[in-house]
Amino acid sequence: MNDALQQILDALSARGCKPTPSGDGYRACCPVHEADGGAHTPSLSIGQGSRRDVVLKCHAGCDYSDIVAALGLEKETAPASGKRRIVATYSYCDLQGNEVRQKVRYAPKDFRIRHRSAAGGWVYKAGDGPTVLYRLPELNRFGDVYVCEGE
What we know:
alpha+beta
């Protein structure tokens, strides 16, 4: 858990919004429209983000800046924006097992194909690099392989 997420959870708890674990994030009452202390079904989703340190989503439609303001956080202490991050890479190898390209998965969910240039850097242009089937060396052991669709 990053510091910004812990800061948000602490601020929600201090205001009686009762953050509870939910999936890979948290749910809580929205401090903007559910701050009256009544029995509400929590409408605020909280989680670690890739473009922001913390993602705050009120399913009733409250604005991010309003939520941060209701928590008493100033712009300087509010979760900062960040970059997307790589969460997985999938290697594509030739028959000899040499990696010739990669598929990269980012969070938030996005995929890119890349291959090495002659200088050794990554080139993110799918049509330019060598084309091989995923797990080709393993597939080669089975003899005939029929590709119906997809990768």
